[in-house]
Amino acid sequence: MTGYDEYAAAVRQLSARIREGERGAAAEAERRRTLHTGVSRLGQRLAAQEQRLAQLGAAAGLPPVTDPASGTGPGPVVTPGAGPAVGAGPVGPGSVPGSGSVPGSDSVAGAGPVAGFGPVAGFGPVAGAGPGAGHDGVDGSGGDVDPVVVLTEAGRLVDEADRLGQQAEALAQQPALLPTWSPTARAVAVYVGCAAIGALVMLVLVVANGIGVVNGVTLGALTCAGLPLISFVAGWLILGRWGRPALASTDPPRYAPLGFVICVLLVPLAYCVTLLLFRLVR
Length: 282
Prior knowledge:
Helix content: 55-70%
Shape: rod-shaped
Number of strands: 2
Oligomer: single chain
């Protein structure tokens, strides 16, 4: 009976180990399915980011980014010092985005830069997360890398890229010149500034006329017509160049009638004030 008891104990032990192995295999399969679902979702978000970046670049007139290897399609971009990017690799139950970067590093390879919000490339499998790896994958350097942690870090970087992308898009909707001002206030400031410069030039011409360098006819023509027209054209060009948002589909309003009135009135008015001051001084 002793042999039978030992045999029965061994059978029970073997059965317990088999059930434990089945539970472990089921838990591992569920873990891999969860990772695969997370990878698929990140892949969809990265594809949407890449498409949106391409649209924004085309709207801003930037050339499309091409893959140096194939010459077509956006290529992977990584932050400085992050090493070469890993190209798009197979996505399966045993793979997660990135290249096995230790959590807390500056970037996950293939996830694209966060600070610069550049084109986001595909991502390949994490070292140690493929078939044959243990529950905690081991990379080539011997350090333990948990794919769940890497996937979480990649998701955080994608969220950060979304936030920075929204900020960049909001900034691209504003012009470079006086971005927080309203279009009307911006136009008035530009035309007044150009008219003030024209008035300064007019003062120089008045001094030149006093010393006989410029005759009275030339001074009158420039004061009444030349300088106001030049000031108006300069303000109109400035608004068209620096008052237009990078993503604007149409030209911004330049308020040409308002600018013309401002320039035509301010420069001659400055001339009249100058003559009045000269008479009072004398």
